[in-house]
Amino acid sequence: MLSNLSMTKKLLLTVLPITLLIYVATVLLVYQSSKGSTEKLAEVAVEAIAQRQATDISGYFNASLYSARNTAELLGYELIDGQLQDRRIADQMIESLLRSTPQATAVWWVPSGSSQDQAVLWLRAGQTLNPGLDDQRQALLSALGQNAGERESVIPLLRLGSAGGDRVVIAVLVPVRDNGRVVGSFGIGLDAAQLQKRVAELRPLEVGLAVLIAHDTTLVAHPDPSRVGRTQAESEGDFLGDHLKVVIDAVRGGVAMTLRFISPAMAEEVFMLVTPVTIGDTGTPWSLGLAFPSSALLGGVKTLALQLILLGGFAALALGATVFLLGRALSRPLEAVVQAIQQLASGEADLCLRLPARGDDELATLAREFNHFLSAMADLVLEIKGTSLALQKTSSELQEESCASGLTVDAQRDEVGQLATAMQQMAATIEEVAGNAGQAAQASGEGDQAVARGQATVSSLVEAINLDAQTLEHVSGLATQLDEASQSIGTIVAVISNIADQTNLLALNAAIESARAGEQGRGFAVVAGEVRALAQRTHISTEQVNRSVNLIQARTRTVVDIIVQSRSASQANVVSAREASEALQTLSQVIGQMRHMSQQIATATEEQATTSELLSRSLVSIADSAESASQSARLVNQRSGDLDKSATRLNALVSRFKL
């Protein structure tokens, strides 16, 4: 039957009647048991209050006792045979203790059996600390007696001053010992008026009264100040009546007790609690008494019952309204969730929609989690949309880049082909350079032979000059032949120099071509550099040979001139001939070096030819790879087009959501 009703009606028909029945039963039960339980609760509350207040008062005294014990112990260290050697020590200790104990109004040290001159007394007057006067010390000695007790003790009300004075203190006394023997007492006088005010202000449960009683039944603090200082027997008979003796015995015995009786003074039933207050190691506990009129504790029972009935009526109305509002509060978020889920199912959802998520109940948690889901969905859709746009843009850029890469690869392929052709031409040139280097080596050999012949001729000339000066004409002819031979050597040297220049030019061209080849032509560039260096050294050697040949020609002409001019210069001609022989020997060595260098050039050019052939093969492989890269670029261009179509489709699907 309830399945056809809305959630609000279900709650009204189930929760409201059951709640009203439970509330009515509860009110009846509370009314029946309130009397007994109220008394028990009141007793428990009063006992807790009394225990807490007794602890506070005990702490009030124990703090002073602790300070007095410490100071008494320090004072005992300064005693010699029970006497102070320097009274200023006691003044300093007492003044310091009085200054640090705000609840104290007097502090003293009294030796056992001493006169008033040996006692030390300090008093507080407002913020000022002063030593006690003679009449005040005399009053203190009179109240304390001549001998100190063996245990800590408390004197309820002690008056200081001449003729009784107006300074009333509660004396806390601690024995002072010298080598285990009691030699005096150290005391702190607590302000009795301050304690009286503190106890008088206690109003337990706002209706009770409190009284502080010393161990000897002296009233130390009382709501009626006129009773302070009197004993219970003297002042409390009108209040306690027949129960006075029982209370006095409890106070003197230091035991706790509870009492319910009719007070003659109040003419009504009173509940009274006596709690002992332990003070240090005195062995004479005080007592704290709390009293309450029973009517004040039980008078609220009927009022409570009436209030519960009225509260029940208002609660029924409030419960109905609450159930109705709760049903609406439960159904609306669920309806919003259902509507949003239907929109998501239709594929046309507004992801900016958010459900109200106030409170911390399950529906609010559901709304927040659903909002988080929508936020996550919106972020996901935004990210997908951004990714699809970026993917579309990237695919377009990739397509453009692939087209450009294809064009670049085609251009590189053409350039590599041209470079391969150039390398083949350079290989042919290198072979030609190798042939020329071989010819230069052959020419160097012929020049070496000519120099050898020149050396033989010069030797014959020297021998002819030594044998007969008449053979100078013949030597002149030979010198002419030598001049012609040196001219031939100069011609050969010029040819070798020309060959070295051509080798240098070819090496320069080879270096340029290797630079164009890039990384793969680097090894060939090194070889071309070496060829250029060899060609330069060959050029320098040919220049040296040329200079030597020129020198031979000049010396030969000098020999001819000297032979014609004078036979007497034959010895000088011999010397010149010897120098010419040495020069020819040097020329022979230079030509040998040039022949060796030409052979090295030929070997290097052969190696360069081999390297250029390998480089040509590598360029052919590069051209093939460039063709493969061109085909890959065309394939990437095709795939980029497909990717662009997919990104466009994804963007169209994401655009169906409202963000």
Summarize the structure.
This protein is of the alpha+beta class and 659 residues long.
Write structural notes for this entry.
- This protein is of the alpha+beta class.
- Among the domains are: 78-185, no CATH class; 196-300, PAS domain (Beta-Lactamase), CATH 3.30.450.20; 405-646.
- It is built from 13 helices and 13 strands.
- It has helices at residues 7-77, 87-100, 134-144, 192-200, 232-235, 237-240, 244-253, 294-298, 300-346, 362-467, 472-517, 522-565, 570-654, and strands at residues 79-80, 83-84, 104-111, 120-125, 128-131, 153-160, 167-178, 181-191, 209-213, 219-221, 257-263, 268-277, 286-293.
- A 6-stranded antiparallel beta sheet has the order 5-4-3-8-7-6, sandwiched between helices. It has a 5-stranded antiparallel beta sheet with strand order 10-9-13-12-11.
- A hairpin with a 6-residue loop joins strand 6 (153-160) and strand 7.
- Helix 9 packs across helix 10 and helix 10 (362-467) runs antiparallel to helix 13.
- The protein is elongated and about 185 Å long.
- The model has no long low-confidence stretch (mean pLDDT 77).
